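COMPLEX REQUEST
Ligand: zinc ion
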Amino acid sequence: MRVRPVIAGSSLSHLDCARCGQREDPDYLQTVCPECGGPLLARYELSREDLRGLPWDLPHRSCDLWRYAELLPVRDRKRRSGLGEGMTPLLRADRLGAALGLESFWIKDEGRNPTGSFKARGMAVAVTRAAELGVEALAAPSAGNAGLAMAAYAACHGLSALVAFPADIPPPYVRECRAYGAEVLVEGATIREAGQALKRHIAANPKWADAFDVSTLREPYRLEGKKTMGYEIAEQLGGVAPDVVLYPTGGGTGLIGIAKAFEEMISLSWMGETTRPRMIAVQMAGCAPVVEAMRAGASRVVPPETAQTRCWGLRVPSPFADREILRTVRDTGGEAVAVEEKELLPAARHALRTTGIDLAPEGAAALAAIPHLLRGGVIRPTDRIVLLNTASSAMYK
Ligand SMILES: [Zn+2]
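STATUS: Structure written out below.
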C-alpha cells in the first residue's frame, strides 16, 4: 500500500500587497493594505516538501474545494467544510466546440455550486476564515450572487449578514437572502451606489458597526476560494493547463484567482514554467471598462458613465482590482473583449441545444466572444479552451 501524505495544516505564511509589496500578518483580521489601500494577497510556503506530492493524494480527498486545504488560509481542520462548494464538473463540449471551429473545448459549470454560482467558493473560504479570526457579522454590496452566497455561508457559520443590492435586483435574491436570515438593503443604480448605501446604513446603525467588509478584494480570502477554479481545471485536465481560459469579468476576482493558482502550481513544481493559460476577460458592450483600458493601453479603468447590461454579474463599472485584472490579462498574454446584448440569447440557445448545458447570461457572453476572438486571431482552433459558466441560469428566469 502506498503511503499517503497526511493532510497537513494550511501553508499560509503571510499576506503581501499586490501593489506596493507591504507584508502583513495573516493571523490577524486584515482588510486592504494599510500603506496604499491595495488588495492583500495570501502567500504560502510553496517550497514545503510535503506539498510536492499532494496531487497524488487528491483522488482520495473530499469532493469539494477543501481538498486543496494546504493551499487555503483556514488553519482549523474542523472548520474545513461548508455546503459542498467547488469540484464543479468540467464538461467536454465537443459538438459545440466543433460548431464554433474549436478542437478542444470544455465548459466548467460553476452553476452547480451551492447558491448556484461561483461566488460560493469565495464566500466559503472568506467567511470560514473570518469566523476563524473571530468575526461575528459580515457586510457587502452585491450585484446578486455574491450577496446570496454571503447570506448562505453566514448562516452556515452562525454569523449575521447585511447585504446591499442595487434597486433593480430581481426579487428572488432579496427573498432568498432574507430566508437565510440576512438583513437586505435595496438601493442605487449599480453595485457602486448600493455600496454607498451600505456604508450609510452601517454608520447609522450601531448594530452593524463591527460588521466585516467582505466586498470583492477588500479582504484577502475570497480570492483564495475563487483560485480553486484554477486548481480544479488543472486537476480535471489531468495535471495540465489549458491554453486559454475565457472568463466573464465583472469584479475580476476569479480571473486573478485562476491566474494565481497557475502561478502557485508552477512554484509547487506541479507543472512547468511554460504552462500558464492565457486569461481572456469577456465583458458586455454596455459596461466594458476593462476592454476600454486594454484598448487604451491604460493601467487603470475609466468607469463608463452609464453601465447597462442585463448580465448583472458583469455590471461592475469600476472594479476595485482594475490594476490587477489588467496586469493579469497582459501578463498571461490574454485579451479583453466585449459582446453585444443581442448576442447573448442566440449563444445560450446554441449551447443548450448542442450540449444540454443551460448557461447563465455571463457564460453566454463568454461563448458569444469566441467567434470574435477566432476572427481576431486571439485564439486558435487548436487551442485547448476552458469557458467558465459562472452561475446557474435559474435566478435569471
Ligand atoms: Zn500596498
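REMARKS: The radius of gyration is 20 Å. The longest strand covers residues 278-284.
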